[in-house]
Amino acid sequence: MRYEENNQSHVHHYVHMEGREQLTVAGVEDVDRFDETGIVMTTSVGTLIITGSNLHIGKLSLDGGELHVDGQIDSLTYEEGQREGGGFFARLFG
Length: 94
Known about the structure:
Blueprint: E1 2-5, E2 13-18, E3 22-26, E4 28-35, E5 38-43, E6 46-61, E7 66-79, H1 87-93
Antiparallel strand pairs: 1-2, 2-3, 3-7, 4-5, 5-6, 6-7
């Protein structure tokens, strides 16, 4: 699975997933929250929420904007801006 955003106003962003156990995300600007069941990060195209189990950040390079995740990945969700109720992020980490 590969998602690419080639908009000139954004840093190059892509998601590369191998099976459901390995994930590489480029265009990462910041990691907002992390635990074994979820990772919330700010990317060049919006907030990306990863949910699963036994999630581990294997490599994080904010200078290069790349993040590697290992574990059982259940979902990837993008959010664009905060809604009044806090959105999925607030429900996930409430």
